[in-house]
């Protein structure tokens, strides 16, 4: 008996090589695949890579094939994020389990912290004073 969709997905996520979970391309395309699923870089948002795992239409696992061509897990990774392969793997695991779109965020400026341009102007001004 074939494993359920969620169980097969968690197995796929666990098998993605760590090297494929970092250093994402800037063009859409498949990053890793097996007979049941494919891990794709769907495209770029203004601030992040849009990564998704999709069920393959001709998957040997009938539960997976029935879900095709749907995305079964999705993660946005901010361009400014400092992350590990295991953090991306964990985000995909949560997304696949809970049906959510996860996000790995980069550093956020404090609410009262000046922006980079303002900070540079302030630093330059204090240098000349």
Task: Please give a structural write-up.
The protein is of the alpha+beta class and about 130 residues long. Helices cover about 35% and strands about 25% of the residues. It has helices at about 5-15, 60-65, 85-100, 115-129; strands at about 30-35, 35-45, 50-55, 70-80, 100-105. It has a 5-stranded mixed sheet. Strand 4, helix 3 and strand 5 (about 100-105) form a beta-alpha-beta unit. Helix 1 (about 5-15) runs antiparallel to helix 3. Mean pLDDT is about 85; it is low at about 115-129.
Short recap of the structure:
The chain has 129 residues and is α+β, with helices and mostly antiparallel strands. The chain has four helices and five strands. It has helices at 5-15, 62-67, 85-98, 116-128, and strands at 29-33, 37-44, 48-55, 71-78, 101-104.
Q: What is the averaged pLDDT score?
A: 87
- The number of helical runs is 4
- Radius of gyration equals 19 Å
Sequence of strands across the biggest β-sheet:
1-2-3-4-5
SSE series = HEEEHEHEH
- Given as residue ranges, the uncertain stretches (5+ residues, pLDDT < 50) are 114-129
Question: Structural class, judged by helices and strands?
Answer: alpha+beta
Name the shape in a single word.
globular
Please give the largest β-sheet.
Answer: 5 strands, mixed
Count of β-strands: 5
Proportion in helices? 25-40%
C-alpha end-to-end distance: 76 Å
- In percent, how much strand structure appears in the residues? 25-35%
């Amino acid at each position: 008996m074939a494993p359920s969709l969620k169980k097969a997905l968690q197995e796929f996520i666990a098998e993605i090589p760590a090297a494929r979970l970092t250093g994402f391309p800037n063009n859409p395309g498949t990053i890793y695949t097996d007979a049941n699923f494919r891990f794709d870089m769907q495209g770029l948002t203004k601030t992040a890579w849009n990564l998704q795992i999709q069920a393959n239409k001709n998957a040997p696992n009938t539960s997976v094939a029935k879900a095709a061509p749907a995305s079964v897990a999705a993660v946005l990774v901010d361009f400014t994020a400092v992350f590990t392969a295991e953090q991306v793997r964990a985000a995909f695991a949560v997304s696949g389990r809970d049906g959510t779109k996860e996000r790995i965020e980069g550093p956020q400026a404090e609410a009262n912290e000046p922006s980079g341009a303002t900070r540079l102007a302030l630093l330059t001004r204090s240098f000349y004073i």
